[in-house]
Design a protein that fits this description.
CATH class of the largest domain: Alpha Beta
Low-confidence stretches: none
Structural class: alpha+beta
Distance between the termini: 32 Å
Number of domains: 3
Number of helices: 14
Shape: globular
Number of strands: 26
Radius of gyration: 26 Å
Largest sheet: 12 strands, mixed
Mean pLDDT: 96
CATH superfamily of the largest domain: Bira Bifunctional Protein, Domain 2
CATH topology of the largest domain: BirA Bifunctional Protein, domain 2
Length: 488
């Protein structure tokens, strides 16, 4: 099997684009800017969904579903929100087609009285709905999550990282007090960080966005930021404290414990199929995809090496019960006994698709009571006893998961630079990675730095040490460092 992949060193962007397609994760669709997520890619996304959905439910959340279409007037009710999304909205203006001499056309008589927006996010439709759900403090909190698709019109797209339509989850919660809403916002940030580090095997920085970078309509946006192999940052999840902005926009009031009317306090939070891009760019290599075992649809593939049907039957007598034993341990295994491809072809296919472990077993192995195990993360192979092999596989999968995290953490630490001058700052950006620097706290300085270098403030880290210094750009006093990077 020919991989024909470029290398990360030659052209990281090209390598990524080729890998996503060749590893059967996704492909471009007939609709410009949209993608087809293929079964292998969708299976990984399903594993992400399952893990996150369990974490959401463990923290008291429930799933619901809200309409894809949002009346245009809803967006005009929250000024910052509409300003933030206006340029990305897809608009439905008619509800019928008709035949004509020139083929099918939009029926001009079927114009909607009010245009509908294909949801770019659901705050407006959900808060309009919550008005009917909330009367008293007894109705609170509402802890709802939605798994859905959204549309944000994009001119430049890249599979998983930026597409016109993408999949995500969006949590929308309602609370009686600001304190409760802030606790919820921070709690969900911790859930995302837990998922990123313990499932995705990607270390993340937790922090708060600046006013320039926060979500449209939020008072505060908390985020997790990942550092990828090419030295660029990726926003991997956000959690927003919305204050009472949406409650006021949609007149969502409740009677509090003191018997007085007040507006509800809100949060929203979400992660998307961008996480697929984070997975690929964090762990994969020039040989193909590398999937962390916890998110791998198939964790170990077993390839028989044999001559004739009798040889396969002998191997199957050992492998069939082994697959069941692995399943009992919660390990997903695939026994690939297709006779349409040679073992070498299968090895290359599973390496390209990122399967964490490969086990090869031949007739000679049966005689010796051994098998060959190959790790995808290190591309190393070892011959091990067949006895207690399921325990060995389980231990190696845990080790692979940890190794991927450790490797990513080491890379991030090595590419985090502390600078004190603007010249040092620009030099550090050329190397790639996070750049820790003083900033005077003004949106104007932040914007100037972005215009001149393309770097943005990724976050103000949580529990940030206070340190007197001078802004690298303006020279004005600064009380703490912030994290800059060039980002996707």
């Amino acid at each position: 099997m020919s991989k024909e992949l470029g290398t990360r060193a030659d052209d990281f962007s090209k390598w990524y684009n080729e890998l996503v397609v060749k590893a059967d994760l996704a492909e471009h669709s007939a609709v410009k800017g949209c993608m087809v997520i293929k079964p292998h890619g969708y299976a990984i996304w399903e594993k992400m969904q399952q893990a996150l959905d369990t974490m959401f439910k463990d923290t008291g959340h429930v799933n619901a579903y809200f309409p894809l279409f949002i009346p245009k007037s809803f967006f005009s009710k929250e000024a910052n929100h509409v300003e933030g999304f206006a340029k990305e909205c897809a608009v439905v203006t008619h509800y019928r087609l008709k035949n004509s001499e020139n083929g099918i056309v939009v029926d001009p008589d079927a114009k909607l009285e009010e245009e509908l927006i294909v949801r770019p996010t659901s705050e407006t439709i959900i808060w309009n709905t919550y008005r009917g759900w909330i009367q008293s403090y007894r109705d609170l909190p509402i802890l709802v999550n939605q798994w859905a698709n959204v549309v944000r019109w994009e001119m430049r797209t890249r599979l998983f990282l930026r597409t016109t339509e993408f999949l995500w989850q969006e949590g929308h919660t309602a609370h009686a007090t600001a304190e409760e809403a802030i606790v919820e916002t921070k709690q969900m940030l911790e859930v995302y960080a837990d998922f990123a580090e313990n499932w995705l095997a990607v270390p993340v920085l937790k922090g708060v966005k600046t006013a320039n970078e926060r979500f449209a309509g939020a008072l505060d946006t908390y985020c997790i930021e990942a550092m990828l192999q090419d030295g660029k940052a990726l926003q991997a999840g956000t959690s927003h404290f919305l204050g009472q902005n949406f409650a006021k926009a949609f007149d969502v009031k409740f009677t509090n414990k003191e018997g007085k009317l007040d507006y509800v306090w809100a949060t929203s939070w979400g992660v998307s199929t961008r996480l697929m891009g984070a997975l690929v760019m964090s762990h994969s290599d020039d040989n193909g995809l590398v999937i962390p075992p916890k998110l791998a649809p198939v964790q170990v593939v077993i390839v028989p090496i044999y001559k004739g049907v009798d040889g396969l039957d002998k191997i199957s007598e050992i492998v069939d019960p082994l697959v069941k034993k692995l399943k009992q341990r919660g390990i997903s295994a695939k026994y690939d006994k297709r006779d349409t491809h040679r073992p070498g072809w299968k090895f290359a296919e599973y390496e390209l698709k990122g399967i964490p472990m490969r086990m090869a077993i031949g007739e000679r192995d049966l005689e010796n009571g051994t098998v060959e195990l190959a790790r995808r993360d290190t591309l190393s192979k070892e011959t091990v006893p067949l006895e207690n092999i399921e325990q060995k596989i389980e231990e190696l999968l845990v080790d692979i998961q940890q190794n991927l995290y450790n490797r990513a953490l080491k890379r991030r630490e090595e590419s985090t630079h502390i600078v004190n001058t603007y010249e040092e700052f620009k030099q550090a950006l050329e190397k790639g990675g996070f750049v820790s620097a003083h900033w005077d706290g003004t949106p104007e300085t932040e914007q100037k730095i972005k215009e001149e270098t393309k770097a943005t403030i990724r976050c103000i880290p949580l529990n940030n040490p206070q340190e007197e210094g001078k802004c690298i750009y303006s020279g004005k006093a600064s009380a703490e460092r912030v994290m800059f990077a060039i980002a996707y």
